[in-house]
Amino acid sequence: MPTGEERLSDITRRQWLTVAGVGAAVTAGAAATVGAQGSASADELVRAVKSARVFDLSFTWNDQSPVLGLNPPYSFALNRTHRMTHEIFGQVPGSQVSWASEIMFFSGQHGSPTLDAIGHIGRNLKLYGGDDATVATSTPGGIGANLGVDSFPVDLMLSRVVFLDVARQIAGGRSDPLPAGFEITAAHLEQTMKAEGVEVRPGDTLLIRTGWGIYFGKDNAKFLGDQSPGPGQDAARWIIDRKVRLAGDDTATFEKRPAAYGKELFSVHMMLLADNGIYIMENANLEGLGDAKAYAALLVTTPLKIQGGTGSPLRVLALAP
Predict the structure, then answer these.
(1) How much is the average pLDDT of 62-79?
(2) Which has the higher per-residue pLDDT, 2 or 141?
(3) Is residue 56 part of a domain?
(4) Which residues in 287-316 are b (16+ Cβ under 10 Å) and which e?
(5) Which residues of 77-105 are buried (b: 16+ CB within 10 A; e: fewer)?
(6) Average pLDDT of 161-188?
(7) Is omega for the bond preceding 113 within 30 degrees of 0, making it cis?
(8) Range of the domain at 34
(9) Which residues contact 67 (CB under 8 A, 6 or more apart)?
């Protein structure tokens, strides 16, 4: 961090964004003066951040958005329109104001994109930290033991993200999606990381592109089918060993499907969530990051603070140099 005697004119955007959690190379500088208390002005911080490239990693929620059948379907309707409310606000004839309001019904943990809370998945009725899954979900009030989405760490809302475009690595630089049922291994992650010239560090968020985001809302049967690509157990161990705090991709279930290892189902979810307390993001729109080759960035992840929620819809932004 800069001292009180340093000037921001000597501080590059690389340093500014690194402080914010970004390790990618930058070339431009941010100019300003450090205040008497040794901190940069808010205006200069805003200018430095706004000079980044912004990528919206969210798809649009609508009635065509794919949602796994084990979750309630998405529905949306206006329950009040502007025509309905004009001249009735306050029961004042001739008033000018009108409003519209809507009602929505959808699953919190699957959408475009969404975050799985730590307590979403258990192993042998045990949650992360050894908490009894039955006790933690014994009331309609949601997941207890501080494992619901309302306990998502504030410091993880801003994180350094490494983006591994495994699909392009496998396709020799083309944007082709991975084949159906393709298992991403530790070797694939390692090779992609080295090819991109980035490094996954402890505490990072990791996003993996399979290329299947192109099917979201366009070929929902394929997107939601049981043959989607994704990390297997080997890749999950790599993610755990790298001490990643949040891992995600552009498929409905994050891990390779069929997600079966013998009689064990969804073992990657159990390994990350239940065994190691690593959050999972699914359904991220990673096509823009892939096209831009933005392999390291600042990720803004803000789940809704739903008490005891098993997950939350997200509006995710990546800020890259």
Answers:
(1) 83
(2) 141
(3) no
(4) bbbbeeebbbbbbbbebeebebbbbbbbeb
(5) eeeeeeeeeeeeeeeeeeeeeeeeeeeee
(6) 98
(7) yes
(8) 8-51
(9) 73, 74, 106, 107, 110, 111, 224
Nearest to 249 by CA among 289, 277, 219, 217: 289
Q: What is the pLDDT of residues 189-206, one digit of tens each?
A: 999 999 999 999 999 999
Give the pLDDT confidence score for residue 89 in this predicted structure: 61
Q: Are strands 101-105 and 75-80 parallel, antiparallel or unpaired?
A: antiparallel
- Does residue 32 or residue 293 have the better pLDDT? 293
Are the beta carbons of 235 and 195 closer than 8 angstroms? no
> What pLDDT shows up at residue 91?
60
Token pair listed for 43: 């205006």
Q: Are residues 37 and 176 in the same domain?
A: no
Same domain, 156 and 96: no
Whether 66 contacts 224, CB under 8 Å: yes
- In percent, how much of the chain has pLDDT > 90? 67
Question: Where are the extended beta strands (E) located within 12-171?
Answer: 53-56, 75-80, 101-105, 114-116, 158-164
Q: Note whether residue 58 is domain-resident.
A: no
R_g of the chain, CA atoms, integer Å:
22
Domain count, the chain: 3
DSSP state of 164: E
What element of type H or E holds 288? helix 287-292
The rounded distance, in Å, linking the Cα atoms of 217 and 210 is 16
| Side chain identity at residue 36, one-letter code | A
Q: Specify the length of the chain in residues.
A: 321
The stretch 298-318 carries a mean pLDDT of 94
* φ, ψ dihedrals at 296, nearest 5°: -145, 140
